[in-house]
Amino acid sequence: MSTALKQVFNKDRTFRPKRKFEPGTQRFELHKKAQASLNAGLDLKQAVQLPHGEDLNDWVAVHVVDFFNRINLIYGTINSLRICHV
């Protein structure tokens, strides 16, 4: 692999620069809360793991429908707010 590709796919680098928020601002406080929730010790790999004895297709179908319903609810809420302010 070329040196340029190795730099692109380096795990220590990111395409988005890390944001720095000015202490005392609302964005800084929100960033702190978001980081605290992300570092709460929740193992996401375990949370999405297929439970023992469950059929993979059934498990995926249930979660896809749940995901669709949640996104639809969020979209409907945002769309109704947008219509109210027009």
Give a brief rundown of this model.
The chain has helices spanning 3-8, 26-38, 44-47, 56-84.
Give the quaternary arrangement of the chains.
single chain
- Integer-rounded radius of gyration: 20 Å
Strand content: under 5%
Overall pLDDT score: 80
> Which structural category fits the helices and strands?
mainly alpha
The number of strands is 0
Distinct helical segment count? 4
Shape descriptor reads extended
Helix content: 55-70%
Strand count, sense and closure of the main sheet? none
Poorly predicted residue ranges: none
CA(first)-CA(last) distance:
53 Å
Whole-number total of structural domains? 1
Question: What is the N-to-C order of secondary-structure elements (H for helix, E for strand)?
Answer: HHHH
Give a structural overview.
- The protein has 86 residues and is mainly alpha-helical.
- The longest helix is centred in the C-terminal third of the chain and has 29 residues, at 56-84.
- It has helices spanning 3-8, 26-38, 44-47, 56-84.
- The termini are far apart.
- It has one domain (3-84).
- The chain is extended.
- The chain is built from 4 helices and no strands.
